[in-house]
């Protein structure tokens, strides 16, 4: 048996080898039955050494060194466990283990479901690396050091003398036992808030007590209430904050406008969604005789009312941003400010910070002024109204009402096209993944889910806001002001190397120099936009991108191809914008330190991520609730994800569901490098971006998951002609 290790490695590393079970390997290598136990020990030793691994179906395969070969097997780390609703998770390192490696040396550690060892989402854990993979080192959790959550939302299921709470969508994977004396007034099928008193172990469920009853589990508004609790989102404003808000006059006084530039005679419009109430940006555009354009972006001057260090300011900083759910908004500021005195409502005087730009015929900003102003919005417009007027599909009543504004809208569209063309020439990346919109009935139930599509009007406002944000960032950078920038760093080199290799499989040769430029990546999107593989390539590139964040140091915005960028245009709903307004007013006299701004930037980046997660969780639930009415119906969709457990498919309405691999006839192996699943017996392939036809089989509201069944898939052929970018 001494030579079996070498023989096994020769087998495992052979190009012809397909994963086999122990019995098959034993037959292949002529291992007699009486030696099978010893043979199994050899295989286990090879697993411990990090040379091989075994699938959930007991099939052995060689472990490739991959991109992270510096992560040695048996390396211990401490970090935060991030769980997936699908059972697996990742450990992001926060402290070095016994080897003393720096956290930057070790990437996120992939933890298979079988190796989670009781860890829950955001717990602090100790983990050990088992072996290195193509995408991530693979490890297991060895100890939970600190629990992140001691409370859970779920649905109570009553038994004779006790109950169980089924947790909902918080990646808490076990039901919680509730003894009779801890149930209180809760009823069967109530949605409840539970405190965990004992986390249990591998053989015993966690135990808890019910803290409060949120409401009827069938009421979607109850789900939102639970999500608000789960994410710790502050809803009610403290009394001191409300007193400050109510003490502010609901109108602009003569004293307020002293020293301000009077722009009340300018034609200014707000253009927003129909249901928007916090209107913080207005625009004005004229075309000049010399072929240039005057572009005014007028932003609500919230800093005039929210003084630094006040109760309003402290609460706004704590919240960081407003949070938007299908049936409500949790505002950063009380409604007396967000919906009234700070909102740029039509026909009334409002205080603003105006960025007045001159744009040439090539879309370049050749001059600018930033002034404190007083404005009076001419008319409130919606995106749909402006688009209808520009596309000549508006009804006669709207055309008559807006007759005097139509020429300005046409000028806006002309200027927007110039700015967008120039931004594209600079290399800005344009991902077009529409946001979902839920239409609710009077009881809060979703009656429609649809993608909120871009239009000429949404593009115009986006272009003008980006222009203002870049202009303000340039002002701050060149005047060396203490500032908060919106940074988006370039993708990591290893992610780009993977992307280049991935493209090569589709006949697209991407040549990158020492430093990747966004223009090259946009060219890839352009040349593949109408190809069958286009959606797949777009999704994979998006996954290579880093997350944008706030910072006191200017690092540039890779996705927008801008050297300096910030957020200036939404001070009603984002705290960084409010702080930036203060800095612009104070200029070089600003007494805020870079360290303080760094803390604000880090805090606001965190509250932004928390709000985005909460919004996604709620929208996922509403999508699942809506799809209950679609059970049994056939839809077309696109594969949006592949895992060891299933094929995720996104429909035209942005709803994502899963085809469980257990429902398919073959056994599928995940090929992470090429984002695909390959059938062991049939060779059938499912890959990102592939079009499929599915049937809606079931909906699991507890996990907010939609279950699909495969009807048929279209097989797209690879490109025949090679493309060089």
Mean pLDDT over the full residue set: 89
* Terminal Cα span: 53 Å
Q: How would you classify the helix and strand content by structural class?
A: alpha+beta
Radius of gyration: 29 Å
- Uncertain residue segments: 65-69, 95-105, 715-720
Major sheet: order of its strands? 4-5-6-8-7
Instruction: Tell me the count of domains.
Output: 5
- Inertia-based shape: globular
Helix percent band: 25-40%
Strand tally is 36
Q: So how many helices?
A: 16
* Largest sheet entry: 5 strands, mixed, barrel
Strand percentage, roughly?
Answer: 25-35%
If you had to describe this structure to a student in words, what would you say it looks like?
With 725 residues, the chain is of the alpha+beta class. It has 5 domains: 4-62, Arc Repressor Mutant, subunit A, CATH 1.10.10; 66-146, OB fold (Dihydrolipoamide Acetyltransferase, E2P) (Beta Barrel); 151-218, OB fold (Dihydrolipoamide Acetyltransferase, E2P); 239-483 and 568-614, no CATH class; 625-724, OB fold (Dihydrolipoamide Acetyltransferase, E2P), CATH 2.40.50.140. It is 28% helix and 29% strand. The chain contains 16 helices and 36 strands. The strands form 11 sheets. A 5-stranded mixed beta barrel has the order 4-5-6-8-7. Helix 10 (406-426) packs across helix 11 (456-478) and helix 13 (518-528) runs antiparallel to helix 14. The chain is globular, with a radius of gyration of 29 Å.
């Amino acid at each position: 048996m001494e030579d079996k290790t070498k023989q096994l490695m020769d087998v495992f590393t052979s190009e012809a080898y397909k994963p086999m079970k122990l019995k098959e390997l034993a037959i292949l290598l002529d291992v007699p039955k009486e030696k099978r136990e010893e043979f199994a020990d050899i295989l286990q030793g090879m697993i411990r050494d990090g040379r091989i691994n075994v699938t959930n179906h007991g099939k052995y395969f060689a472990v490739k060194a991959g991109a992270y070969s510096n992560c040695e097997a048996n390396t211990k780390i401490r970090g935060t466990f991030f769980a997936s609703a699908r059972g697996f998770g990742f450990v992001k390192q926060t402290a070095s283990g016994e080897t003393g490696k720096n956290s930057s040396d070790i990437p996120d550690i992939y933890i298979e479901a079988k190796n989670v060892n009781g860890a829950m989402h955001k717990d602090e854990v100790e983990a050990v690396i088992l072996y290195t993979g193509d995408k991530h080192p693979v490890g297991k959790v060895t100890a939970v050091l600190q629990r992140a959550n001691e409370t859970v939302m779920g649905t109570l299921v009553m038994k004779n003398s006790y109950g169980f709470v089924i947790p909902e969508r918080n990646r808490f994977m076990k039901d919680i036992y509730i003894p009779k004396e801890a149930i209180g007034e809760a009823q069967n099928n109530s949605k409840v808030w539970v405190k965990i008193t004992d986390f249990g172990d591998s053989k015993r469920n966690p135990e808890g007590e019910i803290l409060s009853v949120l409401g009827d589990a069938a009421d979607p508004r109850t789900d939102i209430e639970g999500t608000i609790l789960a994410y710790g989102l502050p809803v009610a404003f403290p009394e001191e904050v409300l007193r400050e808000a109510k003490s502010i006059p609901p109108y602009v006084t003569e004293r307020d406008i002293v020293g301000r530039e009077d722009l009340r005679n300018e034609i200014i419009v707000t253009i927003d969604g129909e249901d928007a109430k916090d209107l913080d940006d207005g625009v004005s555009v004229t075309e000049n005789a010399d072929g240039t354009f005057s572009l005014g972006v007028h932003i609500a001057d919230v800093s005039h009312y929210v003084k630094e260090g006040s109760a309003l300011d402290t609460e706004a900083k704590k919240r960081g941003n407003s949070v938007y759910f299908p049936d409500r908004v949790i505002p950063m500021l009380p409604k007396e400010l967000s919906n009234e005195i700070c909102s740029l409502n039509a026909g009334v005087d409002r205080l603003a910070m105006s960025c007045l730009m001159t744009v040439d015929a090539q879309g370049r900003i050749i001059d600018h002024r930033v002034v404190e102003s007083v404005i009076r919005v001419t008319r409130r417009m919606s995106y749909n109204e402006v688009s209808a007027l520009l596309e000549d599909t508006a009804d006669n009543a709207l055309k008559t009402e807006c007759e005097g504004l139509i020429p300005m809208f046409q000028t806006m569209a002309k200027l927007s096209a110039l700015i967008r063309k120039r931004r594209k020439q600079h290399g800005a990346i344009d991902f077009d993944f529409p946001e979902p919109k839920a239409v609710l009935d009077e009881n809060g139930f979703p009656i429609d889910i649809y993608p909120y599509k871009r239009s000429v009007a949404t593009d115009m406002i986006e272009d003008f806001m980006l222009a203002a944000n870049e202009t303000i960032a340039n002002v701050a950078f060149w005047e060396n002001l203490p500032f908060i920038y919106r940074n988006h760093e370039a993708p990591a080199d290893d992610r780009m190397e993977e992307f280049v290799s991935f493209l090569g499989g589709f006949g697209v040769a991407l040549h990158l120099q020492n430093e990747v430029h966004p223009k090259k990546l946009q060219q890839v999107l352009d040349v593949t936009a109408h190809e069958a593989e286009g959606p797949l390539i777009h999704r994979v590139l998006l996954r290579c991108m880093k997350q944008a964040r706030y910072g006191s140091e200017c690092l540039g915005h890779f996705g927008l191809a801008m050297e300096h960028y910030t957020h200036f245009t939404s001070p009603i709903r984002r705290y960084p914008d409010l702080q930036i307004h203060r800095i612009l007013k104070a200029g070089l006299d600003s007494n805020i330190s870079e360290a303080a701004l760094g803390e604000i930037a880090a805090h606001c980046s965190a509250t932004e991520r928390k709000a985005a997660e909460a919004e996604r969780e709620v929208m996922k639930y509403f999508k699942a609730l809506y799809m209950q009415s679609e059970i049994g119906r056939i839809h077309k969709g696109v594969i949006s994800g592949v895992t060891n457990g299933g094929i995720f498919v996104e429909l035209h309405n942005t709803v994502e569901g899963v085809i469980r691999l257990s429902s398919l006839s073959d056994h599928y192996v995940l090929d992470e490098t090429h984002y695909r699943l390959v059938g062991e017996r049939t060779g059938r392939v499912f890959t990102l971006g592939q079009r499929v036809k599915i049937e809606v089989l079931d909906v699991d509201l507890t996990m907010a998951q939609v279950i699909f069944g495969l009807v048929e898939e279209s097989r797209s052929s690879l490109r025949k002609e090679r493309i060089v970018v």
